[in-house]
Amino acid sequence: MYDIIIIGAGTAGLTAAIYGQRAGLSCKVFEKYAPGGQIVNSPSIENYPGMYGVSGYDYSMALLEQAQKLGAEVEFAEVTGVDFSGKTKKVITSAEDFEAKAVIIANGAARRKIGCKGEEEFEGRGVSYCATCDGAFFRGKTVAVVGGGESAFEEAEYLAEICDKVYLIHRRDVFTAAKTAVDSLLKKKNVTLLTNSVIEEIKGENAVSSAVIKNRANRSKVEVPLSAVFVAIGLVPENGLYKDVLTLDEYGYFDAAEDCKTNIEGVFAAGDTRKKQLRQLVTAASDGAAAATAAANYIRKNF
Predict the structure, then answer these.
(1) Which candidate, 21, 35, 159, 239, has a CA 20 to 30 Å from the CA of 70?
(2) Active-site option among 3, 134, 272, 287
């Protein structure tokens, strides 16, 4: 039996492992995909203190190495079930079952998709969910950004500096982004806002070449030549596995506060997977530290 099982090897999960190991506890980390989470594909990190210009891959590998050097075990396996009914927690994986005194869920959140025809077909071939990751491939081209929040405007602002033309497509006529972000983007002469509009289909042969855009107000459609579509419409928590066990909010995030405690003692939620206002590397690291510290305190009092 381990002291702490951590589900997810992103920033929150690996930080939790670092803090857990340094507290003298044995930590086992499970990761379904690759260490680092979504940041692993970023070409450059600019918003994490002391990490300016470091690639997402190098950052992720350094974080993984640090956790392992401190003694954390990291296994690449999918968690397929849990049993939190007893004092000892059980985690079921695609390989075998494991037990721990405490569990930290740090499984992150997935990018929300448009759901239109052609989106999955052209993912990685013109459909992207990260402008800073892939924008440079479309320098001097015409691209579109889908969304109306802060992230969409940030992506459009970034792309406007390197692309010939940028369309920002939003299904409503009111934006959730800050007015300063909207005003700043409107000053860009190569940016066109298409409100009350949605992408109905993404077209191309080997890569994206156009998109069919539908106006929701008058039902008209127009096919616009594009080299890329950047989707920035938020995140989707992948917490379905826990919906009958742990309390989720209306959006599917774990209903855990800054202490990362869930409704079950000995089970904690850290990072993008819990309800919070800001989802960034720095807040994920903070959550990992808080969750591991709370788990250590729980174990000392109960075992």
Answers:
(1) 239
(2) 134
